[in-house]
Amino acid sequence: MLPRGGALAVATAAGAGLLGWLTGRYLRGHGGYTQEREMLAAVADQSADAIIACKLDGTLTVWNSGAERIYGWAAHEVLGTSFRGILPPDAGPALDRALDVLAAGGHIHLEQSRRIRRDGSTLLVSVTVSPIRNEHGAVVAAAATERDITEKLRFEAAEKQAMERSVRAARLESLGQLAGGVAHDFNNLLAIILNYADFLADAVTGEAAGDLSRIRDAADRARSLTGQLLLFAKREPTEVEVVDLNQVVTGSGELLTRTIGADIRLVCRPCTFPVPVHANRGRLDQILLNLVINARDAMPDGGVVVVETDVTEIRDAADVPLPPGRYARLTVSDTGTGMTAEVRDRLFEPFFTTKPSDRGTGLGLSTVYGIVGDAGGHIGVDSTLGIGTTFRILLPHAADREPSGERGPERVCPAGDGQRVLVIEDEDYVRDLVVRILRENGYRTSAISEDAVAGADLADVALLITDVVLPGRSGPAVAAQLRERRPDLRVLFMSGYSDAELRRRYDIPPTTPIVQKPFTAVELLATVGEALAPHLVGGLGDQA
Questions:
Q1: Which of 8, 251, 359, 443 counts the highest number of beta carbons within 10 A?
Q2: Which residues are registered as beta bridge partners of 143?
């Protein structure tokens, strides 16, 4: 849009040309007509803008080809009729006031004004109106230049919306990086707390055993909390399968009904045909539970929550930043208090909440945001104060895949048989923890720093366990250096970041195992056993 000064300058120039043309037409019968005015009249008549003139009672006297194109009426259809015919029904008083201003010699400029086309559709125009005077200086008519700005305003609105989405996404991405870093450090600490609590479990009795159990429970809850942070940061590994969204909704109905209370009615409307998506079933349940609980908290006096599934097509990214294609849609609506635009813009930020401190951590919706983004989808929110809120989640449709019902085999926790394991970990307590777990379960261990790699004795090392992110260089780089001396060396990585994030950043093949912190002794031993399994021909070192 032009700056106001620029718009006025353009309007002034257009008005001057229009007045010249209209004055020329008026003076045709009064001996003042010239060839220059004839040329100006021809130019004005072919203008892309609508050039319109009317008497002071609103009767149309000039209607150029631009007006015909914009409004759809031919000149012979409107000349002699009232200007009110192209105005909205409620614009009569405004027209009367404008004509009074013009009759007094005033000028009018409107950045936006609503008009009606011949087909009944509305449009927005910018308007400049000037009075027309006769040879005696008396105002006898009014002349308007009108420009259709409907598409221009629509484009600007779409551009603004896209910019706001971009800014919001950048802010959430920044928060996600922060959350991922915090979760990584927490996971190192939690690995220590969880495992040393387990070490003490057999040695503590009586009241102290109860205290230790509470510590262990708190650590488990903290582990769940960091898992939610990693989900928001899109750094939490998940096992995916093809799941029918209808089954998620119907299967969770009974649990959700008990969760929301007797004063809230839950209405589930699954689609009449399957709605398959490629996602983690547990994460989908988590999405639904978080959204329904959020809806419950927005209805303190009771209300209705409606959960629906269907399939939709996206043809362009004008409204939703997703590639064109077919998407499954999960909709959760409530009749609650709604929210302001300011709250809606911050809704998915971690730890942002409008609830009391004892009713939520502010991680529920940020977790949903992370899960949806990790699945290649999008979540949108519509909300009106006093009316309610609607969440719409779009996930890629998995039409060509069959829902899976099989689960992987149970993980076993074999003891070692004297195999030697080399451990590299920059966190002292985590390194000591890994060494202790392995030694107490039949393995021989050697812990070294990354600086001592060049001189490490690899003669009988069966497995290298190394953190992926080390102070000086990466675990994969250390493993590559050791494999120059022992090409068959098997490798197991550890990290507090997610599997997907690390594999992408360090180019770690899917077949190379990564044990996620915080791990328990059972989880570590099971992964070590898998890494040393004899059926893995050639060893995992070939894939590190």
A1: 443
A2: 53, 130
- What letter would DSSP give residue 355? S
In 46-183, beta strands by DSSP E: 50-55, 60-63, 108-116, 122-133, 139-148
d(CA 39, CA 132) in angstroms, rounded, equals 19
d(CA 162, CA 171): 14
d(CA 106, CA 126): 18
Does residue 278 register a pLDDT over 50? yes
**CA gap 373, 93 in Å, rounded:** 52
Mean pLDDT on 486-501: 84
Are the beta carbons of 281 and 319 closer than 8 angstroms? no
| 12: pLDDT strictly greater than 60 | no
SS3 state at 509: coil
Identify whether the C-beta of residue 391 lies closer than 8 Å to the C-beta of residue 251.
no
Distance separating alpha carbons of residues 334 and 351, to the nearest angstrom: 22
3-class DSSP state of 158: helix
Cβ-in-10-Å burial (0-12, 13-18, 19+) of 34 comes to exposed
Question: What angle in degrees, to the nearest 10, is found between the helix axes of 207-232 and 364-374?
Answer: 50
SS (H, E, C) 434-481: HHHHHHCCCCEEEECCHHHCCCCCCCCEEEEEEECECCCCEHHHHHHH
Of residues 18 and 471, which shows the higher confidence score? 471
Check: CB of residue 395 under 8 Å from CB of residue 327: yes
Long-range contacts of 8-16 (CB under 8 A, 24+ apart): 8/109, 11/109, 11/126, 11/128, 11/145, 12/128, 14/49, 14/128, 14/145, 15/107, 15/128, 15/130, 15/143, 15/145
| Residue from 240, 225, 234, 220 nearest 282 by CA | 240
Peptide bond into 409 cis (omega under 30): no
Rounded to whole angstroms, how far apart are CA atoms 41 and 97?
29
Weakest mean pLDDT among 169-173, 218-222, 344-348 = 169-173
Scanning 298-336, the segments in alpha helix (DSSP H) are none
CA distance 463 to 450: 16
pTM of the model: 0.44
- Dump pLDDT digits (tens) for 189-247: 888 888 888 888 777 777 788 788 888 777 777 776 676 566 555 544 456 788 899 98
Contacts 24+ apart (CB under 8 A), 356-361: 359/297, 360/297, 361/225
Pick from 290, 331, 322: which is nearest to 396 by CA?
322
* Tokens read off for 257: 């009904």
Tell me how many degrees the CA angle 365-368-369 measures, rounded to the nearest 5: 90
- Output b/e per residue, 359-386; b: 16+ Cβ within 10 A: ebeebbbbbbbbbbbbbebbbeeebeee
